[in-house]
Amino acid sequence: MCRTKSKLIMIKTIKNSKDSEVEITELMKPINSNFSGKIHGGYILNLMDQIAFACASKYSGKYCVTASVNTVDFLNPVNVGDFLTLKARVNYVGNTSMTVGIRVESENIQSGKKTHCNSSYFVMVAKNEDGSNAEVPKLHLYESEDVRRFIRSKSRLETNKLRKKTYSQESFDYKEHLDELKKYNVHIDPKLLD
Ligand SMILES: CC(C)(COP(=O)(O)OP(=O)(O)OC[C@H]1O[C@@H](n2cnc3c(N)ncnc32)[C@H](O)[C@@H]1OP(=O)(O)O)[C@@H](O)C(=O)NCCC(=O)NCCS
Questions:
Q1: What is the domain count for the chain?
Q2: Which of 72, 80, 86, 184 is the most buried (most CB within 10 A)?
Q3: Could you identify the atom of ligand 1 that is nearest to the CA of residue 133?
Q4: Does any ligand 1 atom lie closer than 6 A to the CB of residue 69?
Q5: Which residues contact 153 (CB under 8 A, 6 or more apart)?
Q6: Any idea what the Cα angle at residue 143 is, between residues 15 and 115, rounded to 5°?
Q7: Residue owning the nearest CA to atom 17 of ligand 1
Q8: Residue at 55 is within a domain
Q9: Hey, whose CA ends up nearest to atom 44 of ligand 1?
């Protein structure tokens, strides 16, 4: 906070994305695998949620909650005995929310071969001690790659908002879509066609 002649100006903290970076590596154990020796997707999601929390909390200096998880595509299976490395950083900030980008890679210990397993984006909201949402620091866009990540996240959030609005129960008229559905693998109940 800074006091000029007559005004009290709040100066917002500015942080680099690098200040938010967190990395964890875990050995994949049989207890988290399915019957074919592959690690359960839910276990990996749990690790991703933990690193998103750590990353957003580190950046904001507040405890955070998960508001939303963007699509997670599992590109390759993870085997028991692999190392799994998760890397996270803040890509975008709003007023109280942050988009955390997470990259997950597995590594075969014997061959050293690394495989990209998935990338995903978690929206986290910072909380004050009384449970209200807390303002987060301004993000310093230092490199061109920071700008690309910021704009990509902004665009993803806008698309999600638009989709929610388009398909809200209040505004969606199913009759407008019945013709289009004829080419899909569905049987439309006759009562919907009346
Ligand atoms: C997510 C949550 C904090 C939103 O808070 P809120 O006060 O209801 O909502 P607001 O509309 O003020 O949103 C706060 C911020 O979150 C963002 N946000 C909220 N829901 C979002 C969503 N689904 N996707 C993306 N951003 C979202 C808003 O855009 C806003 O961002 P900004 O301040 O940077 O502009 C609140 O709904 C909550 O606590 N949910 C439960 C979280 C939780 O328990 N997670 C663990 C799962 S068990």
A1: 1
A2: 86
A3: 7
A4: no
A5: 91, 92, 99, 101, 121
A6: 95
A7: 97
A8: yes
A9: 65
